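Hello Y.,

Per our agreement to keep a running log of every chain we model this quarter, I'm adding this entry. I've kept the format consistent with earlier entries: sequence first, then predicted structure.
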Amino acid sequence: MPKLGYLLPTRERVMENQPETGSLLALAERAEALGFDSIWVGDSVTARPRHDPLTLLAAVAARTRRAELGTAVLLPALRNPVLLAHQVATLDRIAEGRLILGIGIAADMPAIRREFEATGVPFDKRVGRMNEAMRLCRALWSGKPIDWEGLWTVKQGTVGPTPHRPGGPPIWFGGGLPAGRQRTGRLYDGWFPNLPTPEEYPVQMEEVRAAARAAGRDPKAITAAMYLTLAIDDDAARADARINSYLEHYYNVPAAGMRARQRAFAGPAAKAAAWIESYANAGVGHVMLRFAGDHERHLEVASRIRRDLGW
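Predicted structure for the entry above:
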């Protein structure tokens, strides 16, 4: 049975000049009470300012008991991996093994290039930095002293505590392009794109699994996930206007461009249910929903959709 997740509106709250965390924590608690399987937080420092995801998820972990908690998606290349390994291990301890580390490399956009420059990281080196950072984190999560020579130097280094789960949390990669699918199959535990249509998804997921087989990994062990954006409203025109406005303000680019780069739905609940189900039928095992505002109502509607689908 597919799992259903929910993205907290951290970016939106900062944009609305409402950065207080109480309402975000209340939304997390409400999502868990409504039966959502996971709660997610996005990441950006200067390109799309919002709350730090690892810090906020620590608070969410303390306020929830059942739901998985994840980053959608974290940018490891912006962070020192030794410090990141320590933070993630501590967070996974607070969450008692409920953490999923969703990661990505970020799209090539002017604001994101400026973000990398501001944090002292070469944008064109971000893929190699991310992959090495994740290997180093996993080595440190073993709990054994390690020596490391590469972009970072570690001599007999350990971090404590180790994560709740031996070896650390599962790492899902958020890239939807061919190179990202190959990377996921070779290195990571889940595929978490926002680009493919329901028709494209099974073909592209098979590319991920083929890359896993070629790397000597178990292809069935890779989680198939999907990141979707929705504006649910019985008035289809109003829903369409809402999602266009949402995407334009969120990314500061024309909505048409963003709707070509990620999957988004606008319309009534019945059609939303059919759209979500089409991804499950395509093989997606974990669907994460981002709502275009009006979160309390959207949570209730999505919860009813979940029950109607029998998830």
